[in-house]
Amino acid sequence: MSASRFERISIHSHIRGLGVRDGEPLMVGDGLVGQLEARRAAWVVVQLIKRGRMAGRGILLAGPPGTGKTAIAIAIAKELGEDTPFVALSGSEIYSAEMKKTEVLMQAMRRAIGVRIHEFRRILEGVVKKLDVKLGPHPYNPYQQIPIEGKITLATKDEERTLRVSGDFVAELLARGVSEGDVVWIDLETYRINRVGKAKGYASFDLYGEKLVEVPRGPLEKEREFVYTVTLHDLDVMHSRSGSLFSILFGGMERREISSETRKRVDETVKGWVDEGRAELLPGVLFIDDVHMLDIEAFSFLSRAMESELSPIIILATNRGITKIRGTDVESPHGIPQDLLDRLLIIKTRPYTPDEIREILKIRAREEGVELDEDALELLVEIGAKESLRYASQLLTPAKILAELKGLSKVSAENVKEASRLFISMRESSAYLRELEGAFLK
Q1: Of residues 310 and 312, which shows the higher confidence score?
Q2: Cα distances (angstroms) measured from residue 295 to each of 69, 101, 299
Q3: N or C: which end of the chain has fewer CB within 10 A?
Q4: Helix H segments across 198-313?
Q5: Is 0.85 surpassed by the pTM of this model?
Q6: In the chain, what are the domains?
Q7: Residue 257 pLDDT > 60, yes or no?
Q8: Which residues contact 22 (CB under 8 A, 6 or more apart)?
Q9: DSSP-derived pairing of the beta strands 221-231 and 86-90
């Protein structure tokens, strides 16, 4: 019996960076193709960020639809480091019935600032040599048995200890799949349990995918440094509901407004950790697409936010030309107030050439596991140039499924044609609407 692994492939999952070497962008590099001028400008922006010269400024990516604006924003975040938070937001998302517009923007900004925390914890670490569980009737259902207490024997290569534990502790052990032969650590403050893996020499048979680890050495009780990254928003939520720092790694976060007093306390706490060497800040990227959807109040908020001491790198993107600023009767480039435009480094993107479309489709085909014959690739390039790159990319996987139905290992031009008949382009959809205009409801 074969098992298939679920894998979700994002439209930008192939991007690794800006593809710039020694200040010069490669035609194809790190998953990006073409847009040489825009990528070189983005590389300069990365240098400004790394040198701390972006305070009070933001970035605007302006260009027609499907010209790689989101891809460049993701690439900037990748260039800043693996742990750099990247938060994407559409301009229309701020209009929520649950929260104020400015609160949605503030929470997005706080999610885009990471805090890497170094924390020392007292733990028990060892292999579970023996686990005895005593069961008893459920207090509300006598026909159901639940753990009421237990004994666990933990051992290292140098020490062994048997502990009597409560039913709740046993229930958590079982919930985390802990069994005899597993290496675990137990936080002595919160009694959180972490299963590390199966100890070498304790597995009676090979388990596919099972992680084998060495039996720990030294005493059972020890102090260990844990390094984990949270965001300022995580800390805001934790403080607003009076949780513990370690508990924010477990459980879900509720969606609610957070007071300015709570955020002020969090900022003071984080600054204290940084001064003590217990934490470091990781300013990330807040990417707002369709920024023309923001209104004058939101634009005013962003202008002030850029001057904040704790602010992420703000990257805006739009495909609009001269249009009204939402909430006013004033027309402005990209629908953005001119006082905010003056604060932005504007990077333009342009439509892709057929050669660039070809290279992008090759990358997307590899990423999605689609093998194309030459005729299929050329037909997709033609479709991409005539309709849009996005539309051509969206036909890849449907064409693969159609090819598999016919027993083909490679996608042919005929499979692409069939996929394009089944799933029409935006241009064809518009023509269809005009053709049957009277039949559609208004």
Answers
A1: 312
A2: 21, 9, 6
A3: N
A4: 232-240, 260-276, 296-306
A5: no
A6: 20-112+284-348 (3.40.50.300), 115-280 (2.40.50.360), 354-435 (1.10.8.60)
A7: yes
A8: none
A9: unpaired
